[in-house]
Amino acid sequence: MSETPTPPKSILSAELEVVGTIKTSGSVQIDGRVEGEVISQGDVILGKSGTVKGNLNVNSISVSGTIQGNITAKDRIELKSTARLMGDIKAKRLAVEDGVTFVGKSEVNPTGQPIKFDDVPAKTPENAQSGNQGGNQGGNQGGNQGGQQDNNRK
Amino acid sequence: MASKKTKVVDGFTAIRAAQEAARHGHGDPLRPDAEKKTDTPRSQPAAKAGTRIGKSVMPTKREIICPQCGYVSEVTGKLQLFVCQGCRHRMKLDDVTLPEGDWSGELETGGDVTVPAGTRLKGGKITANDIILHGKMEGTELRASRRVRVFAGAAIDWVRTAFRDLEIGPGLNITPGKPLDARHIELHGAFCGNLRLTGTLTIHPSGDFSGQVKAAGLSVHEGGGLRAALDISPGHAPPPQPPKPKSPSRPMRKSLTPPPKP
Protein backbone atom coordinates (compact mmCIF):
# COMPACT_ATOMS: atom_id res chain seq x y z
CA MET A 1 0.00 0.00 0.00
CA SER A 2 1.26 3.50 -0.76
CA GLU A 3 2.70 5.53 2.12
CA THR A 4 0.07 8.25 1.71
CA PRO A 5 -3.16 6.31 1.22
CA THR A 6 -5.49 7.71 -1.37
CA PRO A 7 -9.23 7.50 -0.69
CA PRO A 8 -10.88 4.37 -2.13
CA LYS A 9 -12.80 4.79 -5.30
CA SER A 10 -15.48 2.14 -4.70
CA ILE A 11 -17.20 1.39 -1.41
CA LEU A 12 -19.31 -1.65 -0.61
CA SER A 13 -21.20 -0.64 2.48
CA ALA A 14 -21.89 -2.89 5.44
CA GLU A 15 -25.44 -3.80 4.47
CA LEU A 16 -24.46 -4.83 0.93
CA GLU A 17 -24.08 -8.48 -0.04
CA VAL A 18 -22.50 -9.42 -3.37
CA VAL A 19 -22.53 -12.89 -4.87
CA GLY A 20 -20.14 -13.10 -7.78
CA THR A 21 -16.82 -11.75 -8.99
CA ILE A 22 -15.75 -8.18 -8.30
CA LYS A 23 -13.29 -6.84 -10.81
CA THR A 24 -11.91 -3.31 -10.63
CA SER A 25 -8.99 -1.38 -12.02
CA GLY A 26 -9.06 0.97 -9.06
CA SER A 27 -9.26 0.67 -5.30
CA VAL A 28 -12.18 -0.67 -3.30
CA GLN A 29 -13.28 -0.66 0.31
CA ILE A 30 -15.38 -3.65 1.38
CA ASP A 31 -17.49 -3.34 4.51
CA GLY A 32 -20.18 -5.79 3.45
CA ARG A 33 -20.26 -9.42 2.44
CA VAL A 34 -18.76 -10.80 -0.76
CA GLU A 35 -19.17 -14.35 -1.91
CA GLY A 36 -16.84 -14.73 -4.85
CA GLU A 37 -13.55 -13.60 -6.21
CA VAL A 38 -12.12 -10.09 -5.86
CA ILE A 39 -9.70 -8.89 -8.52
CA SER A 40 -8.27 -5.39 -8.14
CA GLN A 41 -5.33 -3.64 -9.71
CA GLY A 42 -5.42 -1.11 -6.90
CA ASP A 43 -5.61 -1.27 -3.13
CA VAL A 44 -8.31 -3.12 -1.22
CA ILE A 45 -9.43 -2.27 2.29
CA LEU A 46 -11.51 -4.86 4.10
CA GLY A 47 -13.28 -3.19 7.01
CA LYS A 48 -14.06 -4.73 10.39
CA SER A 49 -17.52 -5.75 9.29
CA GLY A 50 -16.34 -6.95 5.88
CA THR A 51 -16.40 -10.62 4.92
CA VAL A 52 -15.03 -12.21 1.78
CA LYS A 53 -15.60 -15.83 0.90
CA GLY A 54 -13.34 -16.39 -2.07
CA ASN A 55 -9.90 -15.62 -3.42
CA LEU A 56 -8.43 -12.14 -3.70
CA ASN A 57 -5.99 -11.04 -6.35
CA VAL A 58 -4.93 -7.48 -5.57
CA ASN A 59 -2.09 -5.00 -5.65
CA SER A 60 -2.16 -4.51 -1.90
CA ILE A 61 -4.70 -5.15 0.83
CA SER A 62 -5.42 -4.12 4.41
CA VAL A 63 -7.57 -6.64 6.26
CA SER A 64 -9.60 -5.89 9.37
CA GLY A 65 -12.44 -8.33 8.69
CA THR A 66 -12.82 -12.00 7.77
CA ILE A 67 -11.50 -13.78 4.69
CA GLN A 68 -12.08 -17.39 3.76
CA GLY A 69 -9.86 -17.77 0.75
CA ASN A 70 -6.39 -17.09 -0.58
CA ILE A 71 -4.81 -13.68 -1.00
CA THR A 72 -2.31 -12.93 -3.72
CA ALA A 73 -0.89 -9.41 -3.59
CA LYS A 74 1.66 -7.90 -5.90
CA ASP A 75 2.89 -5.54 -3.21
CA ARG A 76 1.75 -5.63 0.41
CA ILE A 77 -0.60 -7.45 2.75
CA GLU A 78 -1.48 -5.88 6.06
CA LEU A 79 -3.42 -7.85 8.67
CA LYS A 80 -4.90 -5.69 11.41
CA SER A 81 -5.58 -6.99 14.92
CA THR A 82 -9.22 -7.85 14.17
CA ALA A 83 -8.42 -9.80 11.01
CA ARG A 84 -9.44 -13.41 10.64
CA LEU A 85 -7.92 -15.25 7.72
CA MET A 86 -8.48 -18.86 6.69
CA GLY A 87 -6.38 -19.36 3.58
CA ASP A 88 -2.98 -18.83 2.07
CA ILE A 89 -1.21 -15.57 1.39
CA LYS A 90 1.44 -14.60 -1.10
CA ALA A 91 2.96 -11.14 -1.28
CA LYS A 92 6.14 -9.19 -1.49
CA ARG A 93 5.71 -7.52 1.91
CA LEU A 94 3.72 -8.44 4.99
CA ALA A 95 2.74 -6.66 8.20
CA VAL A 96 0.78 -8.49 10.90
CA GLU A 97 -0.56 -6.98 14.11
CA ASP A 98 -0.87 -8.99 17.31
CA GLY A 99 -4.34 -10.49 17.77
CA VAL A 100 -4.78 -11.84 14.27
CA THR A 101 -6.33 -15.25 13.68
CA PHE A 102 -4.57 -16.88 10.74
CA VAL A 103 -4.76 -20.49 9.57
CA GLY A 104 -2.97 -21.19 6.31
CA LYS A 105 0.30 -20.87 4.51
CA SER A 106 2.41 -17.80 3.93
CA GLU A 107 4.85 -17.06 1.16
CA VAL A 108 6.48 -13.72 1.87
CA ASN A 109 10.12 -13.19 1.06
CA PRO A 110 10.98 -9.48 1.01
CA THR A 111 14.61 -9.97 0.08
CA GLY A 112 13.81 -12.44 -2.67
CA GLN A 113 17.06 -14.28 -1.99
CA PRO A 114 17.33 -17.74 -0.45
CA ILE A 115 18.70 -17.74 3.08
CA LYS A 116 21.62 -20.02 3.80
CA PHE A 117 21.41 -21.74 7.16
CA ASP A 118 24.40 -22.99 9.10
CA ASP A 119 25.71 -26.30 7.76
CA VAL A 120 25.71 -29.14 10.26
CA PRO A 121 29.30 -30.16 11.11
CA ALA A 122 30.37 -33.75 10.74
CA LYS A 123 29.41 -36.08 13.56
CA THR A 124 32.32 -36.59 15.97
CA PRO A 125 32.43 -39.29 18.66
CA GLU A 126 32.16 -36.57 21.35
CA ASN A 127 29.12 -34.99 19.72
CA ALA A 128 27.46 -38.36 19.21
CA GLN A 129 27.92 -39.29 22.87
CA SER A 130 26.65 -35.94 24.16
CA GLY A 131 23.73 -36.06 21.74
CA ASN A 132 22.66 -39.46 23.09
CA GLN A 133 22.88 -38.20 26.66
CA GLY A 134 20.88 -35.10 25.73
CA GLY A 135 18.23 -37.21 24.08
CA ASN A 136 17.67 -39.16 27.33
CA GLN A 137 17.28 -36.08 29.51
CA GLY A 138 13.60 -35.66 28.78
CA GLY A 139 11.49 -32.52 28.82
CA ASN A 140 12.95 -29.26 30.01
CA GLN A 141 11.38 -26.49 32.05
CA GLY A 142 10.19 -24.60 29.04
CA GLY A 143 9.06 -27.73 27.31
CA ASN A 144 11.92 -27.36 24.87
CA GLN A 145 12.32 -30.46 22.78
CA GLY A 146 15.01 -29.27 20.40
CA GLY A 147 17.48 -31.76 19.12
CA GLN A 148 21.16 -31.03 19.21
CA GLN A 149 21.98 -28.79 16.32
CA ASP A 150 24.87 -30.88 15.17
CA ASN A 151 23.25 -34.26 14.90
CA ASN A 152 19.74 -34.02 13.57
CA ARG A 153 20.23 -33.15 9.97
CA LYS A 154 21.25 -36.66 8.98
CA MET B 1 9.75 20.59 47.90
CA ALA B 2 12.41 18.04 48.86
CA SER B 3 11.41 15.71 51.59
CA LYS B 4 13.14 16.10 54.89
CA LYS B 5 14.71 12.67 54.85
CA THR B 6 16.04 12.69 51.31
CA LYS B 7 17.02 15.38 48.90
CA VAL B 8 15.17 13.83 45.99
CA VAL B 9 12.35 15.78 44.37
CA ASP B 10 9.91 13.36 42.90
CA GLY B 11 6.82 14.00 40.84
CA PHE B 12 4.45 13.22 43.68
CA THR B 13 6.08 15.83 45.93
CA ALA B 14 5.96 18.43 43.18
CA ILE B 15 2.26 17.89 42.56
CA ARG B 16 1.45 18.12 46.27
CA ALA B 17 3.46 21.36 46.52
CA ALA B 18 1.54 22.81 43.58
CA GLN B 19 -1.76 21.87 45.23
CA GLU B 20 -0.61 23.48 48.46
CA ALA B 21 0.28 26.69 46.62
CA ALA B 22 -3.10 26.72 44.90
CA ARG B 23 -4.85 26.22 48.26
CA HIS B 24 -3.05 29.24 49.70
CA GLY B 25 -4.11 31.42 46.80
CA HIS B 26 -0.74 31.66 45.09
CA GLY B 27 -2.09 30.18 41.91
CA ASP B 28 -1.08 26.89 40.43
CA PRO B 29 2.55 27.11 39.27
CA LEU B 30 1.99 24.13 37.01
CA ARG B 31 -1.07 25.69 35.41
CA PRO B 32 -0.50 29.48 35.31
CA ASP B 33 -3.67 30.11 33.27
CA ALA B 34 -5.93 28.83 36.05
CA GLU B 35 -7.62 31.45 38.26
CA LYS B 36 -6.14 32.12 41.66
CA LYS B 37 -8.36 30.87 44.44
CA THR B 38 -8.79 32.35 47.94
CA ASP B 39 -7.02 30.81 50.85
CA THR B 40 -9.00 27.80 52.08
CA PRO B 41 -8.43 26.24 55.47
CA ARG B 42 -6.58 22.99 55.65
CA SER B 43 -9.55 21.16 57.07
CA GLN B 44 -11.47 21.61 53.86
CA PRO B 45 -10.48 19.28 51.05
CA ALA B 46 -8.59 20.94 48.18
CA ALA B 47 -10.49 19.04 45.58
CA LYS B 48 -10.80 22.04 43.27
CA ALA B 49 -7.08 22.71 43.02
CA GLY B 50 -6.06 23.05 39.42
CA THR B 51 -3.38 20.39 39.44
CA ARG B 52 -4.43 16.87 40.15
CA ILE B 53 -2.42 13.83 40.85
CA GLY B 54 -3.06 11.64 37.89
CA LYS B 55 -1.00 8.67 36.99
CA SER B 56 2.42 8.84 38.54
CA VAL B 57 5.45 7.62 36.67
CA MET B 58 6.36 4.32 38.26
CA PRO B 59 9.68 2.55 37.92
CA THR B 60 9.70 -0.24 35.39
CA LYS B 61 8.74 -3.65 36.66
CA ARG B 62 10.93 -6.67 36.21
CA GLU B 63 9.57 -10.18 35.76
CA ILE B 64 11.26 -12.76 37.97
CA ILE B 65 10.35 -16.42 37.48
CA CYS B 66 11.30 -18.84 40.23
CA PRO B 67 13.45 -21.69 38.86
CA GLN B 68 12.03 -24.09 41.46
CA CYS B 69 8.27 -23.66 41.14
CA GLY B 70 7.82 -21.34 38.15
CA TYR B 71 5.96 -18.71 40.19
CA VAL B 72 5.98 -15.40 38.34
CA SER B 73 6.70 -12.29 40.38
CA GLU B 74 7.04 -8.67 39.38
CA VAL B 75 9.61 -6.61 41.25
CA THR B 76 10.50 -2.95 41.05
CA GLY B 77 13.65 -1.25 42.13
CA LYS B 78 16.96 -2.78 43.04
CA LEU B 79 16.77 -5.90 45.17
CA GLN B 80 19.68 -7.99 46.34
CA LEU B 81 17.82 -10.95 47.77
CA PHE B 82 14.59 -12.32 46.39
CA VAL B 83 12.23 -14.74 48.15
CA CYS B 84 9.71 -16.55 45.97
CA GLN B 85 6.12 -16.12 47.17
CA GLY B 86 5.23 -19.57 45.90
CA CYS B 87 7.86 -21.83 47.42
CA ARG B 88 9.96 -19.44 49.58
CA HIS B 89 13.04 -20.23 47.51
CA ARG B 90 15.70 -17.59 48.16
CA MET B 91 18.09 -16.34 45.53
CA LYS B 92 20.21 -13.33 44.75
CA LEU B 93 19.28 -11.06 41.86
CA ASP B 94 22.82 -10.23 40.79
CA ASP B 95 23.63 -9.86 37.12
CA VAL B 96 26.71 -11.91 36.27
CA THR B 97 29.10 -11.68 33.32
CA LEU B 98 31.28 -14.75 32.91
CA PRO B 99 35.00 -14.31 32.27
CA GLU B 100 36.42 -15.05 28.85
CA GLY B 101 38.02 -18.42 28.27
CA ASP B 102 36.86 -21.86 29.39
CA TRP B 103 34.23 -21.91 32.11
CA SER B 104 32.78 -24.75 34.10
CA GLY B 105 30.85 -24.66 37.38
CA GLU B 106 27.51 -24.20 39.11
CA LEU B 107 25.89 -20.79 39.03
CA GLU B 108 22.41 -19.78 40.19
CA THR B 109 21.05 -16.26 40.20
CA GLY B 110 17.70 -14.55 39.77
CA GLY B 111 19.31 -11.93 37.56
CA ASP B 112 20.89 -12.13 34.12
CA VAL B 113 23.96 -14.12 33.09
CA THR B 114 25.95 -12.90 30.11
CA VAL B 115 28.28 -15.29 28.29
CA PRO B 116 30.77 -13.17 26.30
CA ALA B 117 31.93 -14.07 22.82
CA GLY B 118 35.27 -15.44 23.94
CA THR B 119 33.78 -17.82 26.53
CA ARG B 120 33.41 -21.57 26.09
CA LEU B 121 31.02 -23.28 28.49
CA LYS B 122 32.67 -26.60 29.19
CA GLY B 123 30.50 -28.11 31.89
CA GLY B 124 28.33 -27.55 34.93
CA LYS B 125 25.04 -25.73 35.13
CA ILE B 126 23.83 -22.15 34.88
CA THR B 127 20.43 -21.18 36.26
CA ALA B 128 19.34 -17.60 35.74
CA ASN B 129 16.34 -15.48 34.89
CA ASP B 130 17.74 -14.37 31.53
CA ILE B 131 20.77 -15.85 29.76
CA ILE B 132 22.50 -13.80 27.09
CA LEU B 133 24.66 -16.02 24.91
CA HIS B 134 27.46 -14.72 22.75
CA GLY B 135 29.83 -17.62 23.39
CA LYS B 136 29.78 -21.35 22.74
CA MET B 137 28.11 -24.17 24.65
CA GLU B 138 30.24 -27.29 24.87
CA GLY B 139 28.70 -29.22 27.72
CA THR B 140 27.13 -26.78 30.18
CA GLU B 141 23.44 -27.02 30.97
CA LEU B 142 21.57 -23.73 30.67
CA ARG B 143 18.28 -23.21 32.50
CA ALA B 144 16.72 -19.81 31.91
CA SER B 145 13.62 -19.24 34.00
CA ARG B 146 12.49 -16.62 31.54
CA ARG B 147 14.47 -15.92 28.39
CA VAL B 148 17.48 -16.97 26.38
CA ARG B 149 18.94 -14.41 23.99
CA VAL B 150 21.28 -15.78 21.33
CA PHE B 151 23.49 -13.52 19.28
CA ALA B 152 25.62 -13.99 16.18
CA GLY B 153 28.70 -16.05 16.84
CA ALA B 154 27.07 -18.13 19.58
CA ALA B 155 26.78 -21.91 19.44
CA ILE B 156 23.80 -23.27 21.34
CA ASP B 157 23.07 -26.84 22.37
CA TRP B 158 19.27 -27.10 22.17
CA VAL B 159 19.16 -30.32 24.15
CA ARG B 160 20.89 -28.80 27.17
CA THR B 161 18.98 -25.51 27.09
CA ALA B 162 15.68 -24.78 28.81
CA PHE B 163 13.78 -21.53 28.47
CA ARG B 164 10.36 -19.97 28.26
CA ASP B 165 11.10 -17.20 25.80
CA LEU B 166 13.70 -17.08 23.05
CA GLU B 167 15.25 -14.18 21.18
CA ILE B 168 17.36 -14.74 18.08
CA GLY B 169 19.75 -11.88 17.40
CA PRO B 170 20.41 -10.30 14.00
CA GLY B 171 22.69 -12.07 11.61
CA LEU B 172 22.05 -15.49 13.14
CA ASN B 173 20.66 -18.45 11.18
CA ILE B 174 19.18 -21.14 13.43
CA THR B 175 18.04 -24.67 12.59
CA PRO B 176 17.25 -26.57 15.80
CA GLY B 177 16.33 -29.80 14.02
CA LYS B 178 13.36 -30.62 16.27
CA PRO B 179 10.19 -28.73 17.21
CA LEU B 180 10.63 -26.11 19.89
CA ASP B 181 8.08 -25.49 22.62
CA ALA B 182 8.13 -22.03 24.16
CA ARG B 183 6.06 -19.08 25.25
CA HIS B 184 7.26 -16.10 23.16
CA ILE B 185 9.87 -16.05 20.41
CA GLU B 186 11.39 -12.95 18.83
CA LEU B 187 13.30 -13.19 15.59
CA HIS B 188 15.84 -10.62 14.52
CA GLY B 189 17.65 -13.29 12.54
CA ALA B 190 16.64 -16.32 10.53
CA PHE B 191 14.96 -19.43 11.92
CA CYS B 192 14.07 -22.65 10.13
CA GLY B 193 12.06 -25.22 12.03
CA ASN B 194 8.81 -26.00 13.76
CA LEU B 195 7.42 -24.04 16.68
CA ARG B 196 4.69 -24.64 19.21
CA LEU B 197 4.09 -21.46 21.19
CA THR B 198 1.66 -20.52 23.91
CA GLY B 199 2.43 -16.85 23.27
CA THR B 200 3.46 -14.75 20.30
CA LEU B 201 5.90 -15.18 17.43
CA THR B 202 7.37 -11.77 16.62
CA ILE B 203 9.32 -11.31 13.39
CA HIS B 204 11.28 -8.08 13.23
CA PRO B 205 12.27 -6.38 9.96
CA SER B 206 15.59 -8.26 9.83
CA GLY B 207 13.99 -11.56 10.80
CA ASP B 208 12.88 -14.50 8.70
CA PHE B 209 10.89 -17.60 9.61
CA SER B 210 10.38 -20.73 7.56
CA GLY B 211 8.72 -23.93 8.74
CA GLN B 212 5.57 -24.59 10.71
CA VAL B 213 4.20 -22.63 13.63
CA LYS B 214 1.30 -23.08 15.98
CA ALA B 215 0.92 -20.07 18.27
CA ALA B 216 -1.53 -17.87 20.11
CA GLY B 217 -0.30 -14.71 18.41
CA LEU B 218 1.71 -13.50 15.47
CA SER B 219 3.32 -10.11 14.88
CA VAL B 220 5.26 -9.39 11.71
CA HIS B 221 7.01 -6.09 11.21
CA GLU B 222 7.22 -4.92 7.63
CA GLY B 223 10.36 -6.32 6.04
CA GLY B 224 10.22 -9.61 7.90
CA GLY B 225 10.08 -12.84 5.93
CA LEU B 226 7.52 -15.55 6.52
CA ARG B 227 7.39 -18.76 4.52
CA ALA B 228 5.45 -21.12 6.71
CA ALA B 229 2.34 -23.10 7.46
CA LEU B 230 0.59 -21.22 10.23
CA ASP B 231 -2.06 -21.96 12.81
CA ILE B 232 -2.46 -18.74 14.75
CA SER B 233 -5.38 -18.48 17.12
CA PRO B 234 -5.88 -16.92 20.58
CA GLY B 235 -7.31 -20.30 21.59
CA HIS B 236 -3.79 -21.74 21.67
CA ALA B 237 -2.96 -19.56 24.67
CA PRO B 238 -3.12 -21.37 28.02
CA PRO B 239 -6.20 -20.62 30.15
CA PRO B 240 -5.59 -17.94 32.77
CA GLN B 241 -4.55 -19.40 36.10
CA PRO B 242 -7.21 -19.17 38.81
CA PRO B 243 -6.29 -16.81 41.62
CA LYS B 244 -4.55 -18.45 44.52
CA PRO B 245 -7.09 -19.10 47.28
CA LYS B 246 -6.42 -17.06 50.37
CA SER B 247 -5.29 -19.02 53.37
CA PRO B 248 -8.01 -19.14 56.05
CA SER B 249 -7.56 -16.47 58.67
CA ARG B 250 -6.43 -17.54 62.10
CA PRO B 251 -9.23 -17.98 64.67
CA MET B 252 -9.40 -15.13 67.12
CA ARG B 253 -7.67 -15.71 70.39
CA LYS B 254 -9.96 -16.18 73.31
CA SER B 255 -9.58 -13.43 75.85
CA LEU B 256 -7.49 -14.40 78.85
CA THR B 257 -9.59 -12.27 81.20
CA PRO B 258 -12.69 -14.05 82.48
CA PRO B 259 -16.07 -12.61 81.50
CA PRO B 260 -17.70 -10.38 84.11
CA LYS B 261 -20.05 -12.14 86.49
CA PRO B 262 -23.74 -11.27 86.08
Task: Please estimate the helix content of chain B.
Answer: under 10%
Q: How would you sum up the global shape of chain B? A: extended
In percent terms, what proportion of residues of chain A is strand? 35-45%
* Largest interface (CB < 8 Å): A-B, 43 and 50 residues
Quaternary state of this entry equals heterodimer
Low-confidence stretches of chain A: 119-154
Strand content of chain B: 35-45%
Mean of residue pLDDT values of chain A: 78
Question: Number of DSSP helices of chain B?
Answer: 1
Describe the biggest sheet of chain B? Answer: 11 strands, parallel
What can you see in these coordinates?
The complex is a heterodimer of chains A (154) and B (262). Chain A is mainly β and 154 residues long. Chain A has a domain at 10-108. Chain A is built from one helix and 15 strands; from the N terminus they run βββββββββββββββα. Chain A has a 15-stranded parallel β-sheet that branches. Chain B is mainly β and 262 residues long. Chain B has two domains: 9-57, no CATH class; 95-236, no CATH class. In chain B, strands 5, 6, 7, 8, 9, 10, 11, 12, 15, 17 and 19 form an eleven-stranded parallel β-sheet that branches. The model of chain B has no long low-confidence stretch (mean pLDDT 82). Chain B contains one helix and 20 strands. Chain B starts with 10 loop residues before the first helix and ends in a 30-residue tail after the last strand. Chains A and B meet through strand 14, strand 15 and helix 1 of A and strand 10, strand 11, strand 13, strand 14 and strand 19 of B.
